[in-house]
Amino acid sequence: MENSHESQSLHLKDRRVDALGNFNLLPDELICAILDYLTPRDIARLACVSRAALDEPLPQESQRSTSIHRLLEKDDVAFVFSSLQLKLKLKFPIFFLLQFCILVSNIAGFLFIYNYFNAERICRINIDYCRNPLQFDGFHSFFLYKRLYRCHTTLDGFSFDDGNVERQNDLSKEHFDREYDGKKPVLLTGLAECWPARTNWTIDKLLLKYGDTAFKISQRTAGKISMKFKDYVSYMNEQHDEDPLYIFDHKFGEAAPGLLDDYNVPQIFQEDFFDVLDRDSRPPFRWLIIGPERSGASWHVDPALSSAWNTLLCGRKRWALYPPGRVPLGVTVHVNDEDGDVNIDTPSSLQWWLDYYPLLADEDKPIECTQLPGETIFVPSGWWHCVLNLETTVAVTQNFVNPRNFEFVCLDMAPGFQHKGVCRVGLLAVDGGCLVNMEKNMSCDKDNFNNSDLTRKEKRVKILRSQESENHEETANSASRRYNLWKHGFSYDINYLTMFLDREKDHYTSPWSSGNCIGPREMREWLSKLWVGKPGMRELIWKGACLAINADKWLECLGKICSFHNFPFPNDDEKLPVGTGSNPVYVMDEYVVKIFVEGGLEASILGLGTELEFYNTLCEVDSPLKNYIPTVLASGILHLENGSFEIDSWDGKKVPGVLAKCNLIPEMGKGDVFPFGIRSKKLVEYRKAGLPESGPDSSAVSNSIWPYLITKRCKGKIYAQLRDELSWEDVLNLASFLGEQLQNLHSLPYPSLGISSLSVVEQKKEFSVANGMDIDIACNELDIHIPAEWEIFVRTLSQKKKDVSSRLNKWGVPVPEKLMEKIDGYLPDDFLKLLFISEQNGMKRALKPLSWIHSDIMDDNVYMEPCCTFGSNEIAALTDNGSVNGHNDGGEVKSWRPNYIIDFSDLSIENRSITANDKFGRLSYQAMCYCILHDENVLGAIFSLWTELQTAETWEEVEQMVWGELSNYQGVACHVTPTPNL
Fold first, then answer.
1. Which CATH architecture has domain 167-325+346-405?
2. Contact (Cβ atoms closer than 8 angstroms) between residue 927 and residue 933
3. Tens digits of per-residue pLDDT, 729-783?
4. Cβ atoms within 10 Å of 370's Cβ, excluding its own
5. Where are the domains of the chain?
6. What is the largest CA-CA distance in the chain?
7. Which parts of the sequence belong to the JmjC domain (predicted)?
8. Residue 42: closest CA among 90, 79, 3
């Protein structure tokens, strides 16, 4: 009988081919990955069409249908499956899903259950639904079996030695700096013995105190979820997940402030350069980590190449670490060559220990240790590490930047991808063609190392495909070869790594990696604060600034500008550009230099030209606004000629020769005084709204030509620095001041755009075809005469409406889904309706007049000066030395008053709204439409500030809450004269 049974087993037909048809060519791993994108109901439907299902002894159709409906409607699902329900949003027992997945052969990922285990064991908690275990012959999958094994294995039997990470007790700061910081990991004992967390951070005690507190849960998908701690503990005790969820919360201090009182940052780790940033600007740096057996952190390098310490309070953790540049077996690193964003494909921690670790030769094994309760492990900058929880653990960890890793952090922030790839994977990031000459390049002259061959759309360093793992001998040899390559010439040295930095990529104009822990503006702010707050470390800070923001390059440019105009060279305090705006701005004692780089050469020259035209207009009409605008001292264009800097003075009133040479010449209109002023700027906006690009591409020379502007320095502080300390009266005075100056701005005469040229007319048809609209037809139907500049306005808004939903989703705007569904219905179907139409001499005309718009009145573009009060109505400004008008009469600083508005390079010409009776004339409606269509994330800021907007049912509710007061506005905009025929 036994021999007969064995003989029958040997001749079992493999049903995989019949079950999958042509899809049988796909490996189980890929099929399971595809199934991750399907909903449970889709998987169930897929199961119903399996060819293998035709031969199986299933229940009668009526009985099966009744069972299905009963299971679909049942709510009291056993909590053992709650983790998978959480991930897939299941509403029915998982065993129902398993039965149907089995019918699709091994597609579902659980078919192997019936080959290796009794179904009663797997479903013992849900026994009512599997009284009669089913047997399915002919289905085998080693891949699926290993997944099941990872779901149910225990780690009690894991046999580890003590590891080879050094253990130290009572380590001094000097000893740590000398032997370990930036060099190698170390296990420290005794640092947490006095912490309350040593006794308070057990699961039972945390559950008692923080059971109803929600913490963030880590999962492999991009979305983040939160779970009450009591629910997570229930999940943790019942789950049998392949990769269990675990708490990994960087905002635990906000969720449970009492936890911060239970521990202190060890003295040897207390220096952290990110401390100078405000809490809102500082990147995530501390995490509460709680996880069950088999959970853990897969292979990674800590953000921004920062260092970290991790203290374990209960349980045991197994650590594996590799030095910088040595990628672990089974890990794939992706580096995008557009912005340097780094992504890592890695097996789970448990999978790596089970499937990959046994393949390693002794010389290729990682540095290892088992961390015990009360121990703190230090992970240096750039080290790869993987953590596996051997039992339920509770830990706290923090990342930090100190003098040892500061330059590495700055390098990691810099634009480009070559250096990021080398920092993560060493010389494996270098293409094979470069490896041939690597040895002699390294031995002769490192500076001659050719980086130009390294570029491609996406760098992939594939260390091992999972299906290759079955060839143990080949894999082991491959690991040894990679180890030798890693050792060959690679050095985790800042000077060595800097060789791979692309110096041609400019910090201010190149794409900023989305994976960076802070943005470019925050980076500049951080360096500026360090420069002021740590004068004793300026040599180090300067090195980092040169890596991250090309500080040396821009200082050289600044020196040429100052020398050309006979201005004093910046002193040591003034060497770094200030951390505001998107252009290098240097604030000296008496003057400010702004170098235009944002958006490339065309945008830069239009920004400076617009600003100079605006200043000229202020002086011509003697506007009161000019008293609150910094005086222009000089302006010009800096450019490279044959490797040396040259400067051409430019007042905006001609086409400079350097721009003529690169064919950047605007379309000239009649009487153009400022060829690169507001008119040219509107034409560029017109093109960007959908018309074909015209003229030659100037991008090739844009990285060697930089317009600049020098203005008198504004005394006082920017509003961003004073926001939290201003009195309510100061805030009201500021609002009144801005209202008065904006009225002065809107009252300025606007330039004749003169855009009704032949070129615009010729492009109308192309624009209409490309964007599915024809403004001429709309105007003819309404019998309206639309000046050319308003055609630009209407076309631009129409184009922005087409992709508004995708653009807002890309921003990640926190707008409720119910509002996103109504956004197209809220916006005008025809933006001509936003124009105020009046009939003159039998013809309908658009009468909305134009006015100057600042476009960028941010909290860092308004200056305020301190005031001294002498009586109930006597207020005077203080000078820099604390006196009033140069005389110290004993006044006391009690308030601040606005004195300057800066940065008019983003000026625009827009409509001056006129109220009307319908919704299209409401100022509140127009403002809401412009917020929705704005190029920047205005809508995101609004919904972040007004949390009550989350309950709004319609856009009209949002409009009234945010902009309702505008509809009552009775200012200058309501008393305008008709627009003349342009």
1. Sandwich (2.60)
2. no
3. 999 999 999 989 988 888 888 765 554 443 444 444 444 434 444 545 444 444 4
4. 18
5. 2-152, 167-325+346-405, 520-712, 717-746+862-901, 758-857+906-974
6. 113
7. 254-417
8. 90
